[in-house]
Amino acid sequence: MAIITLTSDLGSKDSYLASVKGSIYNQLESAKIVDITNDIAPFNIQQAAYVLRNCFKDFPQGTIHIISIDDELTSKNEHLAVKANGHYFIGADNGLFSLLLNEMKAEKIVRLNISQSTNCMTFATKNIFVPAACHLARGGTMEIIGTEVADFEVKSTELKAVIEKDMIRGVVIYVDGYGNAITNISKEVFEGVQKGRNFSILFGREDEQITTISAKYKEVSPSEKLALFGENNLLQIAMNQGEANKLLGLNLHEIIRIEFK
Predict the structure, then answer these.
(1) How far apart are the C-alpha atoms of 91 and 248, rounded to whole Å?
(2) Which is nearest to 246 in space by CA: 176, 144, 159, 165?
(3) pLDDT value, residue 76
């Protein structure tokens, strides 16, 4: 039986998440549901795409990922099911799929045409995405639940690091639960510009700087700042047993500059 994951901004204090899960079990009692996270900031597709990109490959191929972010149907916010890298992704075409498909090629995309069994038009995750996910989990084909989209255009909606001969300028794109500030500067980009040279990572009012890359958090003393490349190969600014975002003022979109000498 296929796994169905949930990535959403539904939170856990209201009834919405329970209704989605109950609807899945009602249609597919043997379903395996995994919460990736239901604490995405409301309507934040960048955050949802970042989290999902970093973990979906750890699930078996054939896993179905429901993304419940800004799911209300409009002419500019249609509902899609996408197959890519052997996984299925179901959500609204609100820029989320452009973020996901910037890093992988879609094998097939369909525009969902599922008829709702209710007049409620404000809960597409439960009334449209769940039936689509359960259909796929039972081994159904994508063509039954939607019309194939042959001309989907991936639009770049994510900031890229600015690269110069002696400098990289990036931004904080995500802050995790430990307060680590993850940037949009990849290890590949960093090493391509560095070429063995010394460097300074500057941030805040640029009176904060780091001049080495650590391999692990405990290479420095508790409460000391460090920089490292995480499992996703993105540069992060962290503190050993401390919250870098609060103590170093590293919030979303904060500029991180690396100078090479």
Answers:
(1) 36
(2) 176
(3) 74
